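Per reviewer request, we include the raw input and output of the structure prediction for the construct analysed in the revised manuscript.
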Amino acid sequence: MEKLQKIHNLIILDESGSMESIKKSIISGFNGVGQKILHFIDPISKLEEIDDSRYRPEASTPLYDAMGYSFAKLKKGLENETDYNVLVTILTDGKENASKEYSGKAIKELIEKLKLESWTFTYIGTDHDVEKFAASISIHNTIQFNRNAEGMENMFKKGKFSSKKV
């Protein structure tokens, strides 16, 4: 019998102020995706849906810090596991503009190292040069969406909110 390999999903969801205009679509789409994922090593039964009180877009985009902290937390949680893959999806409407702990260079190096450990990355974005920014941090799986409710809904409906090369 073939041994099943665990797959861990890490979704980094931008909560900066500019996401307010597509907040309802984000909440709906994320909650739909959340039915199929694990949350920081917890089983899906522990994953709570987001709503207006839990998803409050405001301020700027400390994207590198969010990535660095999330990668470190998941990697630490997987220290005693073997035979797994990690799928990382980053969903944002803008570039980094507020990180204090991690630089673009540090994130790029970390991503390159994690790719060697069976981590796969997808960058989903809008309102900036998605491919150029993603490539600057060594991510080559990208999806660009239209910055409106319809664009968000289409992205979620097509099942592209995962780490697939498109």
